[in-house]
Amino acid sequence: MTTTPLVEMRDISLSFGGVHAVRDVSVDLHPGEVVGVLGHNGAGKSCLMKILSGAYRRDEGDILVDGKVARITNPREARAHNIETIYQTLALADNLNAAANLFLGRELRTPFGTLRSAEMEEETRQIMNRLNPNFRKFGSPVAHLSGGQRQSVAIARAVYFNARVLIMDEPTAALGVEETRMVGELIEELKSRGIGIFLIDHDVHQVMRLCDRASVMKNGSLVGTVRTDDVTEDDLLEMIILGKTPKGRAVA
């Protein structure tokens, strides 16, 4: 790609005591692209993304946003650079409805301090209509929503507050076929808006289906980054298990 990446992580390292959780890893992400971050448990994929989200502080390396070095040492600084994380747990308040969750901690208020509830619901309806037109349960607590609908609310919250980079942690885990399809459609909608997505996953099939590129990690190091169109599921499994790029496959 010739465009400037939304985000570049260059030579990132992080250790916990004597354990190298991440060692000299470089990855990047372009507008409208989904990059899968793959590896076994303990491979370093979640640690790498937690560095980008500001949850962990890197020991070495640089993070660039729009080609410029960015200071990201906590989640607030990550959000200031329009980087949002959607964790597997989704961090939703189960007793609140979609609008209350979308504006949670950032509520719209009148000059007298009262909630502008009607305006928040209308804003929620508008963005949900763009992301998931079939969403109807605006008055229900999110505890009563399906897994895919809960993902819709979490994604809408990030998009409404101008996320340009999304980190998604196994968004289809424990979802059924229809719910998984819904999340896939949401991801395609985000791509069409120019949002870049890092997708943390261990499901090779989902990565092949949803991602443009895949970055595979093993023992804290980057095995390689490949275009999903250029590899097979077996190629990715070989990278995960053996820790080497398949012969004849170009590194992206």
SSE blueprint and pairings:
Layout: E1 7-16, E2 19-29, E3 34-38, H1 45-53, E4 60-65, E5 68-69, H2 75-80, E6 83-86, H3 98-102, H4 117-131, H5 147-160, E7 165-169, H6 177-192, E8 196-200, H7 204-210, E9 213-218, E10 221-227, H8 233-242
Helix pairs in contact: 4-5, 5-6
Q: What is the number of independent domains?
A: 2
- Oligomer classification: single chain
Largest sheet: 6 strands, mixed
Termini separation? 10 Å
SSE run: EEEHEEHEHHHEHEHEEH
**CATH architecture type of the largest domain:** 3-Layer(aba) Sandwich
What percentage of amino acids are in beta strands?
15-25%
Short description:
The protein is of the alpha/beta class.
Structural account:
This protein has helices at 45-53, 75-80, 98-102, 117-131, 147-160, 177-192, 204-210, 233-242; strands spanning 7-16, 19-29, 34-38, 60-65, 68-69, 83-86, 165-169, 196-200, 213-218, 221-227. The termini are close together. The model has no long low-confidence stretch (mean pLDDT 91). The protein has a 6-stranded mixed β-sheet with strand order 6-7-8-3-9-10, with helices on both faces. Helix 4 (117-131) crosses helix 5 (147-160) and helix 5 (147-160) runs parallel beside helix 6 (177-192). It folds into 2 domains: 1-82 and 164-252, 3-Layer(aba) Sandwich (Rossmann fold); 93-163, no CATH class. It is of the alpha/beta class.
Main attributes of the structure:
252 residues, alpha/beta, Rossmann fold, 6-stranded mixed sheet, 10 strands, 33% helix, globular
